[in-house]
Amino acid sequence: MAVQDIECCDFYQVHEEVVRAVKDKMPEDGALYDLAELFKVFGDSTRIRILYVLFESEMCVCDIAQLLNMTQSAISHQLRILKQSKLVKSRREGKSVFYSLADSHVYSIINQGFEHISE
After folding, report:
1. CA 2 to CA 49: how far, in whole Å?
2. Quick check: helix, strand or coil at residue 99?
3. Is residue 3, in this structure, part of any structural domain at all?
4. Could you list the residue range(s) of the whole structural domain that residue 108 is in?
5. Which site in 22, 35, 63, 78 is 20 to 30 Å from 91, CA atoms measured?
6. Greatest CA span in the chain, whole angstroms?
7. What is the pLDDT of residues 61-116, one digit of tens each?
8. Helix residue ranges per DSSP H, 1-119
9. pTM to 2 decimals?
């Protein structure tokens, strides 16, 4: 998109009441930074594929690796990032570790993303 494609006001005028009202509702910079970091995690297609797999079913690393045709090491690396971001959780059953989406918020984010790209 070229700069000339962006519409701007014909003259500079600040609408003080609107600016003040929005400023009062703005979260702290730290919270906005954390939100941006969360969305960066969603910016990787491998992690999105893993999240979608877990959207469908709880699975172990071996199963995810087989399904996505990737190494267990690569899957484990991505799962570590997803777990640090509190998007997935794990549970041990014998010698296996099963992963699932952390909570309903993750389901909602994925669903809303699909709805948005489907419009």
Report:
1. 33
2. strand
3. no
4. 15-118
5. 35
6. 68
7. 999 999 999 999 999 999 999 999 999 999 999 999 999 999 999 999 989 998 99
8. 16-25, 29-41, 45-56, 61-68, 72-84, 104-118
9. 0.81
How many independent structural domains does the chain possess? Answer: 1
Nearest residue to 77 via CA among 55, 107, 43, 46? 46
Condensed to tens digits (0 to 9), the pLDDT of residues 46-66 reads 999 999 999 999 999 999 999
| Cross-sheet strand order for the sheet of 96-101 | 59-60, 96-101, 88-93
Sequence letter at residue 104: S
Q: Is residue 59 part of a domain?
A: yes
Structural domain includes residue 1: no
CA angle at 73 for the pair 99 and 90, rounded to the nearest 5°: 15
